Amino acid sequence: MALTGRIALVTGGAQGIGRAISEALLREGAKVALVDSNPEVARECRGRLEEAFGVGSSLFFECDVTDWAKLQEVFRKTVKHFGHLDIAINNAGINNEKDWQKTINVNLTSLIKGTYLALEHMSRENGKDGGVIINVSSMAAFMHSPHMPVYTATKYGVLGFTKAMAEASAVGNFGVRINVLCPAYVDTPLLQTIDEEDKMGRYFKYKEELRQSMHTYGILDPSLIADGMMMIIKDGSLNGAVMKITASKGIHFQNDEPMSA
Ligand SMILES: NC(=O)c1ccc[n+]([C@@H]2O[C@H](COP(=O)([O-])OP(=O)(O)OC[C@H]3O[C@@H](n4cnc5c(N)ncnc54)[C@H](O)[C@@H]3O)[C@@H](O)[C@H]2O)c1
């Protein structure tokens, strides 16, 4: 997929991984709607992106993805403004074991909503031209982090939902490729939550073990995650792919065992 003139929507786009992929898309000539609930980081990000890529190449929406009506409105306004939608990246996520219901709501329920909204605007079923969706999971979906059990559960959920949706898209001829990305530790503000008792709850006491785990597995630069996403966006053959990104193996894919009866 050539990216000039393509339209992307990125949730959690103002910081960390979301910002890295937004910048990568803008560098290749796409236009990007950034959706974020944090007005301060969004303001700073907006200034930088408009300076680097010009006013008009990006749109900013202050929106909490758990607000269903507002998220719906954001998709609608993006399509109204830019004319259509080609790429949706459901990236917004949090680590909060104390308010674990919120973690499920942001990381899984809202990602499902984001996927359905993206399909509404891209699926051939709705008379649209197709596109690509990337849902952000984590290596936590493979490593069963004992100190972030609910976060881990949401990332398992993202993995299962996305793979099932990719098959639904193939069977239903949606024309939309749906893939999931599973990064290991990435150098973003999300990692700092391990120092916040308010976020870690009963698992706060294990923060040194988590730190040790980061030391063992390494911490990736967000730009590498953006490289992986660009690979998924550009490779038209990928649907239902599970991309893993780790320090030891770099960008690679999970190979599933074929299902036997
Ligand atoms: N950093 C890591 O080590 C790591 C590893 C694997 C997967 N991930 C996943 O990558 C994604 C991005 O994480 P990150 O590391 O860039 O985090 P981050 O905290 O640096 O950035 C997340 C962005 O999402 C926004 N956001 C949070 N809740 C939101 C909500 N309810 N509505 C709208 N925006 C919201 C934040 O304001 C922030 O700008 C998450 O899904 C995370 O689980 C992160």
Task: Give a brief description.
46% of the residues lie in helices and 16% in strands. It is of the alpha/beta class.
List the helices and strands and how they pair.
Layout: E1 7-11, H1 16-27, E2 31-36, H2 39-53, E3 58-62, H3 68-82, E4 87-90, H4 100-122, E5 131-136, H5 140-143, H6 149-172, E6 176-183, H7 197-200, H8 207-217, H9 222-234, E7 242-246, E8 250-253
Parallel strand pairs: 1-2, 1-4, 2-3, 4-5, 5-6, 6-7
Antiparallel strand pairs: 7-8
Helix pairs in contact: 1-9, 3-4, 4-6
The structure holds nicotinamide-adenine-dinucleotide (NAD).
Could you please describe the fold and organization of this structure?
- With 261 residues, this protein is of the alpha/beta class.
- It has a single domain (7-246), classed as 3-Layer(aba) Sandwich (Rossmann fold), CATH 3.40.50.720.
- Helices cover 46% and strands 16% of the residues.
- The chain is built from 9 helices and 8 strands.
- An 8-stranded mixed β-sheet has the order 3-2-1-4-5-6-7-8, sandwiched between helices.
- α2 (39-53) links the parallel β2 and β3.
- α1 (16-27) packs across α9 (222-234), α3 packs parallel to α4 and α4 packs parallel to α6.
- It is globular.
- Nicotinamide-adenine-dinucleotide is lined by residues 11-12, 14-18, 36-38, 41, 64-66, 91-94, 106, 136, 138, 183, 185-186, 188-191.
Range of helix content: 40-55%
- Please describe the biggest sheet, giving its number of strands, its sense, and whether it closes into a barrel: 8 strands, mixed
Q: What letter string, H or E per element, gives the SSE order?
A: EHEHEHEHEHHEHHHEE
Distinct helical segment count: 9
Helix/strand structural class: alpha/beta
Uncertain runs are: none
Number of domains: 1
CATH class: Alpha Beta
- From the alpha carbons, calculate the radius of gyration and give it in angstroms: 18 Å
The name of the CATH topology is: Rossmann fold
The overall pLDDT, averaged over residues, is: 96
The global form is globular
What CATH architecture label applies? 3-Layer(aba) Sandwich
> In angstroms, what separates the terminal alpha carbons?
36 Å
In percent terms, what proportion of residues is strand?
A: 15-25%
Bound molecules: nicotinamide-adenine-dinucleotide
The name of the CATH superfamily reads NAD(P)-binding Rossmann-like Domain
